[in-house]
Design goal:
Blueprint: E1 3-5, H1 11-22, E2 26-28, E3 41-42, E4 44-46, H2 51-66, H3 68-74, E5 76-79, E6 83-87, E7 92-96, E8 101-102, E9 108-109, E10 112-117, E11 124-126, E12 129-131, E13 138-140, E14 147-151, E15 156-158, E16 161-164, E17 166-175, H4 180-199, H5 204-220
Antiparallel strand pairs: 1-14, 2-4, 3-7, 4-6, 5-17, 6-17, 7-15, 8-9, 10-14, 10-17, 11-16, 12-13, 12-15
């Protein structure tokens, strides 16, 4: 399931993050890529060891944790520290799939990938996040503060930037429910139960929807 979530970050947070990025130190993005992805990765990433980078990462993770839609879609067990990426003119990230296991000391499975856009589409040309599927390619380019959530198993790329600068935070989630089809069913049942609870709060259908959602989550969660 691919879903776009608006307003993960609020405008004051975006301004603070952008200020930290402007004063931050950036390194070659290949340093954080796997062996195959390193061949096609051409971007810069904020030095993760600096206080500014730690501040930005903490703000992004906190925003994801408080967002109810993200919580229901991703069912996060763990959220990786985000990478803060910068694409300037001529930079791109070719077709790749994200690593299945991430982390050096504690290995975590990547079930879900998340891109949080940190500047607006009008700030740059190109730079679309391009998802590959059996139905063709899908291009995604969202306003600052919005996020796109998609299975980490998806082949994807970032198109070359031809003007301006693209800024984004990218992170990965190990979900309580690893199977993407089951996560989608759970999200659909959740939305159905919320609708029934509003329309018929004392009705049997609402009780059954809550029961079904709880029992599916109990059956499928790890």
């Amino acid at each position: 399931m691919l879903i776009c979530i608006p307003d993960i970050l609020e405008w004051p947070e975006i301004k603070k993050i952008r200020a930290a990025i402007e004063s931050g130190k950036f390194l070659d993005g290949k340093k954080t890529a796997g062996a195959r992805a390193r061949r096609v990765k051409n971007n810069q990433q904020m030095d993760r060891t600096t206080d500014a980078a730690k501040e930005v990462k903490a703000a992004v993770v906190a925003a994801l944790r408080r967002n109810k839609t993200f919580q229901r879609v991703a069912l996060p067990k763990t959220i990786r520290p985000p990478l803060i990426s910068r694409y300037q003119v001529g930079m791109n990230y070719g077709l790749h799939v994200d690593d299945a296991l991430m982390g050096s000391k504690v290995r975590e499975r990547s079930d879900i990938s998340v891109t949080v856009f940190l500047n607006d589409p009008g700030d740059y040309e190109g730079g679309e996040l391009v998802m590959s599927s059996p139905y063709g390619e899908q291009e995604i380019k969202l306003p600052a503060g919005h996020a796109v959530v998609y299975p980490s198993s998806t082949l994807h790329q970032v198109a070359p930037v031809t003007r301006g600068e693209r800024l984004a935070a990218v992170t990965w989630v190990q979900s309580h429910v690893r199977d993407p089809a089951r996560r989608e069913i759970l999200y659909d049942v959740y939305r159905m139960r919320e609708t029934l609870a509003k329309l018929h709060p004392d009705g049997e259908a609402a009780d059954l929807a809550f029961k079904t959602h709880a029992n599916l989550l109990r059956m499928w969660s790890e």
